[in-house]
Amino acid sequence: MEAASVEAIEWSFDTLYAVEEVPAWFEELLTAYSQENRLIGHGVFFSIFSGRWLPEQQQWLHHLKKISQQYRFDHVTEHFGFMTGKDFHQGAPLNIPYTAVTLDIGRDRLKRMQDTCRCPVGLENLAFAYSLEEVKRHGDFLNELLEPVNGFIILDLHNFYCQAHNFELSFDELKSLYPLHRVREIHISGGSWDHSEAMPGKTVRRDTHDNAVPDTVFSYLDKAIDLCPSLKYVVLEQLGTGLTTVDSQVAFRNDFLRMNQLIKNNNNTSLPENSFLPQPLQLPAQVREDESLYQQQLELSHILEAAVSFDAVMCALQASSLAHSDWQIERWDPAMIETAAKIAQKWKHGWT
To answer: What are the coiled-coil residue ranges (predicted)?
Structure first.
């Protein structure tokens, strides 16, 4: 910041729910970048695929409208998935089945986001998947979701790294699955390794945002910049809980400098092909809902959060309404089911 090297900032605007008073310097920072049209918003808790329209989602939109009037966002994004947990601040974002029902619900929520913030809107690709089939379908589903609002993708390259490791895919295989013409923003970050007990010998890469950026992710960035003709932002992410030591702070600074230099080396002076400006749209009077989907989401959340062992998770899933359904739990990778339970049980104590 002091060297004026940070050209834009991304603010996770819905994560300050427990903060009673924001410091004056923080508001000044947001205002300064907002006035230069270099402030972008990133949501965590909208839960765009919740089968039932919940009061928390309406409150989220009210909050977005208020801050969109206070600050000028160049665009606003949200995470893909639905939130587990008794409330959105105590839950994990997890995947949904790719069906006509979830497509309709996701489009409805994106329209409501765009109608509220009146700027380009987008979604971030997932790090987590239950199966290789989900990985292969994710990019096309994102494209279908975003088309009605002229929306864009945050291409999170550490999420790519997770998918590549967890499902034994190459970068070239992954990139072929995504509509890269829709990428307006790229994320890079670090994460952690988890050893599977369900599949001994297998490690799972998790997107925990608490470590330095792997060299492989920088390699992905070097390749991805030229593949995304509408790219405007590259963002380095890391949770504050991962920056508590001098070594971690130095590593974060070095990651930023490395990212910055890589962008300069790949500098393309041409304007983005697509600005993703909002198109005229008709907001549905009736919010799209599906009670069956919502009940299945509640059931899955309870199974993942309450199970005391992998075997307990598997028994509960097989006896649930998700069995032999669009969720296709019979094809889920055991290590990823185990990971989903760990994620849900961590997040039920609150987002960090």
So the answer is: none
- Look up the pTM and report it: 0.94
Q: Of all residues in the chain, what percent carry a pLDDT higher than 70? A: 95
Nearest to 298 by CA among 72, 45, 82: 82
Torsion of Cα atoms, 299 then 308 then 87 then 90, to 10°? -140
- CATH superfamily for 9-290 is Divalent-metal-dependent TIM barrel enzymes (3.20.20.150)
Distance CA 1, CA 274 (A): 29
Q: How would DSSP label each residue in 281-347?
A: ----SSPP--HHHHHHHHHHHHHHHH-SSHHHHHHHHHTSTTTTSTT-GGG--HHHHHHHHHHHHHH
Q: Is residue 96 within 8 Å of 145, Cβ to Cβ? A: no
| Contact present, 40 and 185 (Cβ < 8 Å) | yes
pLDDT digits (tens, 9 = 90+) for 267-304: 777 788 899 999 888 898 899 999 999 999 999 999 99
Query: Would you state the structure tokens that stand for residue 18, as one six-digit string?
Result: 């427990």
**What was the pLDDT predicted at 87?**
56
Whole-angstrom distance, CA of residue 130 vs CA of residue 337 = 7
